Amino acid sequence: MTIHPTTGPGPDFSSERGEKTSPERADVLGGAATSLGHGSFDDHHPPAQELLDDCVHCGFCLPTCPTYALWGEEMDSPRGRIYLMEMAKKGEIPLQGAFTTHIDRCLGCMACVTACPSGVQYDRLLEATRPQIERHVPRTRADRWFREAIFTLFPYKRRLRAASIGGALYQKLRPKSMDKLMARVPQRFERLVAMESLLPPVRLRDAFARIAPRTPAVSSPTHPTRRGRVGLLTGCVQDVFFHPVNEATVRVLAAEGWDVIAPREQACCGALGLHAGREAEAAERAKKLIATFERAEVDTIATNVAGCGSSMKEYGELLADDPEWAERASAFAAKVRDISEIVDETLADPRARRHPIEAKVAYHDACHLGHAQKIRTEPRRVLRAIPGVELTELPESEICCGSAGIYNMLQPEAAGDLGRRKADNIRGTGADVLVTANPGCLLQIRKYLDGELPMLHPIQLIDASIRGVRPPEMG
Amino acid sequence: MSTPAVKTVTPTTVDELRDAVLDHPGTLRVAGAGTAADWAGTPAPADTVLDVTGLSGIVTHNPGDMTVEVRAGTPFAALQDELAQHHQRVAVDPARAAEGATLGGLFATADSGPRSLQYGSLRDLVIGATVVLPDGTTARSGGHVIKNVAGYDLTKVLHGAHGTLAVIAGLVLRLHPAPRSTPTAAVPTDRAGMADLARRVADSPVEAVAVQWHADRLLVLFEGSEDGADARARRLVETVGGELLAANEATAAWDAHGAAVRARPEGRAVFRLGVIPAALPGVLDGLEADAGALTEVTASPRTGIATVALPADADLVAAAHRRVAEAGGTSSLRQRPDGASLPAFGPAPASAVLLRAVAASLDPEQRLGRGRLAPWVPLPETTGVTA
Amino acid sequence: MVDAQMVREFTDLLSENGVITDEVGLRSYECDGLTGFRQVPALVVLPRDAEEVAGAVRLCAEYGMPFVARGAGTGLSGGAMPVADGVVISLQKLRRILEIDVENRRAVLEPGVYNLEISKAAAPHGLYYAPDPSSQQVCTIGGNVAENSGGAHCLKYGFTTNHVLEMEVVLADGSVVTLGGPTGEQAGPDLRGLFIGSEGTLGVCTKVTVRLLQTPQSVRTVLADFPSIEAAGDTVGDIVDAAIIPAAVEMMDSLAMEASEAATGAGLTVDSPAALIIELDGPADEVEAEFEQLTAICERHGATRLHVPQEAEERQKVWKGRKAAFAAVGRISPDYIVQDGVVPRTRLAEVLTRIADMGRDAGLRVANVFHAGDGNLHPLVLYSEAAGEHDAAEKLSTDIAELCVELGGSLSGEHGIGTDKACSMPAMFSEDDLGVMHRVRLAFDPDSRCNPGKLFPTPRLCGERPGKYQPHPLEEAGVIERL
């Protein structure tokens, strides 16, 4: 199986290719960048050759890739994107242009990582590639502005709260004619339209409510001892737009015998930036969060946001090169648990009684939980532990809903197609309620299923079951 | 135009067959046991008859590999007898086998029997072939292993070629173990009810290997171990009615079925058709509306294949072909009275273009079986003998 | 050559985003599942329906362009590798299941439908599609037709050719024909059977009707470990002698199990020299009786462990361990070559011994995963590109394939000839055999524009291996040509 670049009749195409590549490469790097051995990448953590070599081009990833499902184009599949990375690594193609387009279109859902029999770590490859693009590919002014806007708003609770005032007012006052107006907005503003339509209905009281810094475990004569101290990441979007989820989380943890610590000074975990290639920003946020939770002296760090959990579990790799932080980051990462993992561990010896909730429940795997953290059975187990719950599986459950961090704002068209596809699949199950463990998914799916059925975080269902009340939105 | 004398040659080896093809210029007609001499298109007079019954016998049989290589002129029944000694078989059961049909003949005429529901026809069991082209080229395709995708599956194009394109010298077949027990259940039903009944048979977990309607009964054949197959047959009878036939009754029932398929009723022609199963009852009713009562009817409501006898009238047969074609099906003419000039096939499908191209490529002078595939492959412009 | 006029015509013909012309896009299509052979196409087109496919093929005909139809690009013989200056027609947008006809037990499919999707769609009706290649989650029915794909269960149920009833095919000139029909039986020669397995060299299939089978009442699977490959092989022989036709009999050696277990955690015994996965299906009572017979045979041959998965989920896990084995080998070796040869089943032990010897001589490890029931071997030659072992590995792999032919078998059981084995074809077929195949090819495609350079040995491709291929006398006489 020799490489025969010139097999088949006709003129030799490969030599033509050879002539083309070098000048283009020079254009991008301007001859100044240090790319020794890394082709079009610079030498700051380029995608590692060993990781690229793991891919044997078998194609098992194709059916689970959302963009491949939509378009069927090789360049917009995991296998294709790895092939592009490989070409860039050899310096055969520049980062600018098609390469960036196809990497930008990746949702980072990691369904391919689950599907891959060869164990290709596409997550690591993507995380190594995106910062290279951010460093070397100048974005258009509009794109730059939009990205900056997102990163100036979302990771800041205070700014989100301020925005939520505007949002709440806007939603109250928004004239019906606005829909028509938005539909006529020119193509180049489609991202703004996408952002507008994602604004969740939020109660100002929730947006400004805060989680108590310390909530003691519920003790009872049968269970006088605590299980331990859990630190809760309250999150940014989660705390402002889905505050009731945080409240439910605290109540469940306390009811199950944990002291819950929610440090006031905690800020964004950096997940949104990390997944978009803003590595330096993410590293700074990681350090601050590590320090915060070190001071809180907790045994476990809980999160109810799939995206945050996924990036916090990777702090060790993110800060591996920083001698001062490497060890502290690994120690932190080792303590991180998704809320479903924590609750699942308590099922063997539950302290809080579950009251029945008669409902057909569709569980949507958030990509950052299912694919990135491989947490699929735990949420299902904790839901099944609620008497009366009938759990139903979604067709195409491995395919992303299109939310993917900030993807639905950056690539609204693809996200829209995926959102509609997911909504159709959810409708088809005839479920009474949809549950999923990520605020991004909830915002995205709500857009395409608005009002059709209640949508909750699993912990809200568990909380309602423990308290013996009807879950929110379920009357 | 003079009529040259017809010679018959009987080669006994592949080399002799090749020599015969090369040494006898002009047109050739391949003949086996002659059980389907009147099937398909009426052949134009040939200069030489190639009698392949001399190419007979098993070449290699390795029971452990479940494969056998057989010369094309071997009588199928003799082959089955030989294999039975090793508790093996070729899992097809065409009716003509009882008349002495050869393996090559059954293959070339794409004949199959009731078990095609489970095992398909010979096309599904042949894994290799040796053929001789009209230009004397001897070629092999496939091989001796069941699983093989190397090269084109050339053998397939000779299945249903009725002795055109190339002469089949030998075939390699995959074998199946002979079942220990083959009970038959018979459920009375008229033709109108056969489809629904057959669907109930198919939907129950009894795994029938053949479901045939004949003489107002649905015959359901089972294969398996003594206990297993009998139990399944009994379970079917419990579910849908009818009776489990005693061994001699079952043999008689299937013999009668086979006799109907290969019948040569006076003044009638035997018409073979295949349509999508659900359409079969309607198509049979339609044929009857056109041509009067059908006789010698055998039908498989699960495969959609049926054999019926019609009046040997060219217009009626043409109408029957058209009716099947309109239902999206396929049809061909089988036994017919001597000298009857009846259309062998229905309207030519779009793929007939390909068929003509393949014929032109393998047998550009139409030496072999000229007229057999007419009108899909029309006779050459010059009907004279080419030397 | 592609010019602006031509690109414009393709763009006008096809729906939005139907034409790829940029270099990065084109290079993404330069190889299929076999990456050793690469060729950048001049153009990639993605039609949305059969009509667009026919239109694209007609345009290719007008411009005299060669073309290659491509499904999911998972083939392991380079069959979907583009042709220089040619067009790739990707069928990945033709993914609709057009009909599941429960009453007549058939499905009508566009060619880009994933194999596994057919069974998923049929499952609610108690039906399934039998051929199950290991890549069934991603390989497409169109690709299955091109390769006549089998799978683990083809021992009992046959191959693609035994399950396809009817196909709509676009020929090289853009005309559309239907091959086959509503029943297995056809009037006239079986062109459908000829087309299936022709590796894209006779036309492009745009619609396929397949048979669906009733889901077996009962399925029993055993994963049996054996103290040696020979013991496992003898077990298979005795099963066949006992007149049992298992739905599947798969064998894996320790190296393959090590890799697969690391990837899937399927429960394989990593240090066992050999294991068989044997599956029986059918009516419950008989399956039960045969299963007892089967386990007794395994025990008689010294099986060291019999694992019988009880739940469907557990069974799927075992199968996952088998089906993911190729790709999983990437975990234990930086590079590897998947070989695909067939020997008569009774010569399995002999061929395995010789493969082991050959591997030792070449200083390379060979893992074995194979369909033991039908003698279809998949030796995986492990090597390191970085250590300069590529050529030795390639030679060993080719030698193994040709050894299979020498033992009375075949160059390929299911992966096809493609680009990879075209040069070995003369080891299995004479000049006359190949000449006749080529004549048929020219009848379908007189200008050899459908996937040229595949399946047939070409002087250009095989020139580096003198002595293997002699031009056919007809070729020398200019009667036929090989591209």
The CATH class of the largest domain in chain C turns out to be: Alpha Beta
- Which CATH top level class of the largest domain in chain A fits? Alpha Beta
Summed up, the domain count of chain C is: 5
C-alpha Rg of chain C, in Å?
Answer: 23 Å
Strand content of chain A: 5-15%
Q: What's the shape of chain A? A: globular
Helical run tally of chain A: 26
CATH-defined fold name of the largest domain in chain A: Rossmann fold
CATH topology category name of the largest domain in chain C: Uridine Diphospho-n-acetylenolpyruvylglucosamine Reductase, domain 3
Protein architecture, described:
The complex is a heterotrimer of chains A (475), B (387) and C (483). Helices cover 51% and strands 7% of the residues of chain A. Chain A has a 5-stranded mixed sheet. The radius of gyration of chain A is 23 Å and the shape is globular. The longest helix of chain A is centred in the middle third of the chain and has 18 residues, at 279-296. The N and C termini of chain A lie far apart (65 Å). Mean pLDDT of chain A is 86; it is low at 1-35. Chain A has 475 residues and is an alpha/beta fold. Chain A has 4 domains: 20-136, Fumarate Reductase Iron-sulfur Protein, Chain B, domain 2 (Orthogonal Bundle); 143-206, no CATH class; 209-344, Rossmann fold (3-Layer(aba) Sandwich); 354-467, Rossmann fold (3-Layer(aba) Sandwich). Chain A is built from 26 helices and 9 strands. Chain B has helices at residues 14-23, 76-84, 103-108, 116-119, 122-125, 191-203, 226-240, 247-261, 280-291, 314-326, 352-362; strands at residues 7-9, 28-31, 48-51, 58-62, 67-71, 88-89, 126-132, 138-142, 167-174, 176-177, 184-188, 210-214, 217-221, 243-244, 268-274, 295-300, 305-311, 330-333. Chain B is globular and about 65 Å long. Chain B folds into 3 domains: 55-177, Uridine Diphospho-n-acetylenolpyruvylglucosamine Reductase, domain 3 (2-Layer Sandwich), CATH 3.30.465.10; 184-259, no CATH class; 262-333, Alpha-Beta Plaits (2-Layer Sandwich). The longest helix of chain B has 15 residues, at 226-240. Chain B is of the alpha+beta class. Chain C has 483 residues and is of the alpha+beta class. Chain C has 5 domains: 4-90, Uridine Diphospho-n-acetylenolpyruvylglucosamine Reductase, domain 2; 97-214, Uridine Diphospho-n-acetylenolpyruvylglucosamine Reductase, domain 3; 216-328, Alpha-Beta Plaits, CATH 3.30.70; 333-420, 2-Layer Sandwich (Alpha-Beta Plaits), CATH 3.30.70.2740; 423-476, no CATH class. In chain C, strands 12, 13, 14, 15, 16, 17, 18 and 19 form an 8-stranded antiparallel sheet that branches. In chain C, strands 5-6-10-8-9 form a 5-stranded antiparallel sheet. Chain C has a 4-stranded mixed sheet with strand order 1-2-4-3, covered by helices on one side. In chain C, strand 18 (365-371) and strand 19 form a beta hairpin. The two termini of chain C are 18 Å apart. Mean pLDDT of chain C is 92; it is low at 464-473 and 479-483. At the B-C interface, strand 8, strand 10, helix 6, helix 7 and strand 18 of B face strand 9, helix 7, helix 8, helix 10 and helix 16 of C.
